[in-house]
Amino acid sequence: MIKVIVYQNHDGVFCGFRMKGHAGFAAYGSDIVCSAVSVLVINTMNSIEHFTDDRFKGAVHEKKDVVSFDIISRPVSADAALLLNSLVLGLNAIQSKYGNKYIQIRIKKKKGV
């Protein structure tokens, strides 16, 4: 199962996420749920890097199956917030289509942000 935690700041604005695991929907290399989630996550990271001035920390740990991304700019720009909202919209659509068995999404307040 893919577990995603999306972080919000004290104003309710998305400011980062952490993704871990594999969906297990199909064999490795044929898993459309993993593929869809990966495309959304990597595209969001790349889009924030290329289309905003927000500073961030991001890491992909392939051996641990973990992707983490945190915007460290304050405040989070409207463009970055829109891109993160789009990510959450897409992840929720995947969860609705394929179910909680393959992807679990949690929204969590980030302390001190």
Kindly report the name of the CATH homologous superfamily. Answer: Cysteine protease Prp
Structural class by helix and strand composition? alpha+beta
Number of helices: 2
H and E order: EEHEEHE
CATH architecture: 2-Layer Sandwich
Explain how this protein is built.
The protein has 113 residues and is of the alpha+beta class. It is built from two helices and five strands. It has helices at 32-51, 78-98; strands at 2-8, 14-20, 56-61, 66-71, 103-109. Strand 1 (2-8) and strand 2 form a beta hairpin. The chain starts with a strand and ends with a strand.
Provide a short characterization of the protein structure:
By secondary structure, this protein is of the alpha+beta class. 36% of the residues lie in helices and 29% in strands.
